[in-house]
Write a structure and sequence with these properties.
By secondary structure, the chain is mainly beta. The chain has 1 helix and 8 strands.
Length: 149
């Protein structure tokens, strides 16, 4: 037990946390495919021996673009998200969706895995406002890439 304590203390000393920001690009799929792009303002953690990203998290602002699942009209989603990504990835998003004839506001909790800036997560859209807006998938599998700037 004492060895474990010293090992964990050593890792904490060797880890370095820095401010970071950069682009997030990705693709979502369930019934329909949606592409996403955004910008993350957050922090990253690196171990001294490697400059590869070991973990990152923060506030992201983005867009989701695709076709509405209900009537094939263009779909636009304006998204605010907060994520933490250190092997296990979790977070939540609030997304304003519109197909330019109606709109809906959704909350999406997400959980998955992440490593070296790549994130694979499952999310479920929950209605906040306008429950009759049915232009989006209830379930989402997404793969995103964080590109530090």
């Amino acid at each position: 037990m004492t060895m474990l304590f010293f090992f964990l203390a050593y890792i904490q000393v060797k880890a370095e946390e820095k401010n970071t920001q950069g682009l997030i690009v990705g693709i979502q799929n369930w019934d329909k495919t949606i592409v996403e792009a955004g910008y993350l303002f957050g922090r990253k953690i690196e171990w001294v021996e490697s400059k590869s990203i070991k973990g990152y998290g923060g506030l992201g602002l983005g867009l989701e673009l695709g076709n509405s699942a209900s009537n094939d009209s263009p779909l636009l989603g304006l998204k605010v998200a907060y994520t933490i990504n250190m092997f296990i990835s979790f977070g939540g998003s609030v997304i304003y969706y519109t197909d330019f004839s109606t709109w809906g506001l959704r909350f999406r909790p997400e959980i998955g895995v992440s490593m070296f800036g790549v994130r694979i997560v499952y999310g479920r859209n929950s209605t906040m406002l306008k429950p009759n807006f049915s232009g989006i998938n209830n379930n989402v599998m997404s793969v995103t890439l964080f590109i530090p700037m």
